[in-house]
Amino acid sequence: MRIVVVGGGPAGIRAVEQLVRAGVTPIWIEEGPDGGGRITQRPPPGFTRDHAALYGADAGRARRLHATLDAMKPRTDWRPDTLVWNIRPQDKVLHTLTNGAAQGEVAYDALILCTGAMDRVLPLPGWTLPGVTTLGGAQVALKSQGVGIGANPVLIGTGPLLWLTALQYAKAGAKPAAVLDTTDFLTKARFGAGMLWNLPTLLRGMGLFAQLKLRGVKLHEDITPLAIEGVDGVTAVHWRDAAWKEHVTPCDAVGMGWGLKPEAQLADLAGVPFDYDATQQNWVPRKDVAGRAPVAGVYLAGDGAGIGGVEVAELAGARAALAALGDAHLPSDMALTQHLDGRLRTERRFRKALEQAFPYPAKLAARMEDSTSVCRCEVITAGELRAAAAADAPEVNRAKAFSRVGMGRCQGRLCGTPAAAVLAKALSVEVPEVGRLRGQPPVKPVPLQQVG
Amino acid sequence: MKKALVIGGGLHGLSTALHLARTPGWQVTLLERRHVGRHSSGVNAGGVRRLGRALPEIALSVIAAEMWQNITALVGDDCGFRATGQVKVAESTADMAKNEARVAQVRALGWSHEEVVDQVEVRRLLPAVSRHVVGAIVTRDDGSADPMRTVMAFRRAAEQAGVTIVEGVAVTGLEATAEGTIRVDTDQGPYEAERVANCAGAWAPDLAALTGETIPCGTKASMMIVTERLPPFVDPTVGATARALSFKQTAAGTVVIGGGHQGRNDKAAETSTVLFGSLAHAARIAAEIFPCVAQARIVRSWTGTEARPPDDMPVIGESRTLPGLFHSFGFSGHGFQLSPAAGAAVAELMARGATNLPVAPFTQDRFTVPA
Ligand SMILES: Cc1cc2nc3c(=O)[nH]c(=O)nc-3n(C[C@H](O)[C@H](O)[C@H](O)COP(=O)(O)OP(=O)(O)OC[C@H]3O[C@@H](n4cnc5c(N)ncnc54)[C@H](O)[C@@H]3O)c2cc1C
Ligand SMILES: Cc1cc2nc3c(=O)[nH]c(=O)nc-3n(C[C@H](O)[C@H](O)[C@H](O)COP(=O)(O)OP(=O)(O)OC[C@H]3O[C@@H](n4cnc5c(N)ncnc54)[C@H](O)[C@@H]3O)c2cc1C
Fold first, then answer.
1. InterPro entries attached here (chain B) (predicted)?
2. pTM for this structure?
3. ipTM above 0.90, yes or no
């Protein structure tokens, strides 16, 4: 039985753990040099800050995950620095690229995809300037290299990651010039109640808020970002407060992010159908509660299967592995399965509230000025996209064919969400009606010399 | 008004419908199963090429080239057409000899668009070309256009000429009526017309088979890859004499590489998938001819499907089993360039039963009647 796990984050670690427990030796593939995933991203060897400094309140989790990660490596066929860039589902074969140079093919009987998520962005005038990055990018810079994106960054967006990043920067010695949250207090308060399902996490969120205040970081809610100013780098952010007063905040960098979006291109290439999740405002690959995709032999877990956060990622990773084992008539822990199912149900309710409390500002995206570039790879403006809509592009794939939006190196991973919002508004339809960009291999750029 | 139906909203269907609607007395409806440009016509490499055509195709291709030079007059948009030239490089003296023989043959037939050039000239045309390239055949006023833009321009022109385009309707049957017309069954009810064009691309031979006519035909699933943007280094579209390659840098800077390398096709599902094994081959050839792309990274790949008769030439002609039905398919990976002229020919065949345009070599009889 060849089981392949893609992704060495929390979901992948917990999936592999269950497989090894059942006596299976999976092939375990991770794009990065080490496992840990996003939230518990590991610094390179020789890096000295300890877990507490790096991961704050998540230090305990990070320690546990890293211990399992290290214990599992020798008991699996662990392949770091290896990108899975294509799937041939008919043949059950993955295409891999190791160290950016060595090409490989990996055959599987069962495939567990734990590919994580990436930030969603809201394009603004100036967002393509050097010095502007995603919140995730800002965090990764801090966690894996110990350098921030700037000494006085402005952080814009919404969601727990916004506050968390701000606090991590404050603790690392930077002084965030401002934290600009596009969500108003009422929305957060209204749906915050739903988060009582998970009191500890809710309290942590509130704790974050308090700590930021304590450190004198300026927090503004219900803001509208207007533009990022600068020539060769960032010098200021223009924004409008809830009372429509305009502000200019000087800064040396910008981190921005509005929640997360599943990195589900591999599921797409595997032939898994997608559904629109209106709460998450994301297209999500279809799966059952255990993580089974409707494509035989394909299992999905973690943020790549729909945003659930780290707790869900760990639970769902283990659950998907148990499903794969059970389907292959290998020993699987029934009691654990039941326990996981119960926990996952509770977490889902919490998550729903969380997403509602921090919505993607699709309205702001839809109102973007004609001159703002939506697609930074191909430099396509909102105006060009609207022209495509006028030229009869009732869905995103045709808008892509007409305007080139999403054709560049990111393959629409970044611009897909705002482009859909712009297009839907231009066509006066709801966002799900304009569909989803179909995935095309490679999922990330691959050197020409190395295909095949 | 006489009624005509065109099946298939690719460029050949659109072009046929456009020309027929501009013929007095015809009312044209086009039926497309998905949406206009969904298959080959929307995803091809946009090469507008006479260079290297099979001899029986040259005459039609030359007429098409003239239409491309004036494409705005035909459809009201320039379709992104740029006459940047097509170059087919020679990598050995054997290639050069082959090229000289080829051009002599083309010239003997009275055509002058193909020209042999030496190493000095090929380096002038393609400064980034590998030093081992010894010469080339060029057609200086060939070029390329933007496929999706072309599809939309043809669509708009057809609609302005009075064509009714219906998307999301699949033809499921064809039958002669007692009145001498053709009944066209679809998944949304029947249509009836005096003339019908079968421009259903990869699926056209299946429609012919529904009328009891077997036309030998395989399918092609040509693949393309695209690199990240690179600084501009090549204007013309480039091919090779002895190896399968088509290579073009777009205005955006990306390099589009193809050349007929085949992916996997699933006709029933209307999908085709990239097979990277054979694309690797294309990538290798590209990097050997343009060393500057060796380090480039691929960002995207795709395939498109179309019909391919055994001799790689289209089938254009009236059905032998259902009079009034006209086939136009099987362009075998090079029908983009032919579409303005082929559509004009098919429209004439439908309206008058004859055409002066040079499509006689393409009847399906070539597979059944011994030469
Ligand atoms: C940048 C970023 C920062 C985040 N920070 C926090 C935080 O501080 N706190 C918090 O609660 N949540 C955070 N999240 C959310 C958090 O990522 C998840 O809740 C949790 O990490 C999900 O675990 P996972 O295993 O599903 O995915 P991840 O942790 O993202 O792990 C996925 C792994 O799969 C690998 N991978 C993906 N595609 C391929 C491929 N094609 N080939 C090979 N390997 C591949 C990736 O390299 C990665 O290591 C963050 C998310 C992002 C994107
Ligand atoms: C990757 C690739 C690169 C290419 N590069 C070039 C190039 O550089 N230069 C060049 O000259 N040519 C090129 N070609 C070839 C060119 O694209 C085709 O020859 C041309 O587009 C064929 O057009 P068509 O209208 O016959 O077929 P299509 O565009 O495939 O249209 C057929 C249409 O019929 C519809 N249809 C099918 N069945 C039914 C039914 N039962 N009912 C209703 N509708 C139906 C389909 O949905 C489809 O839209 C390339 C092709 C590919 C795939």
1. FAD-dep_OxRdtase
2. 0.91
3. no
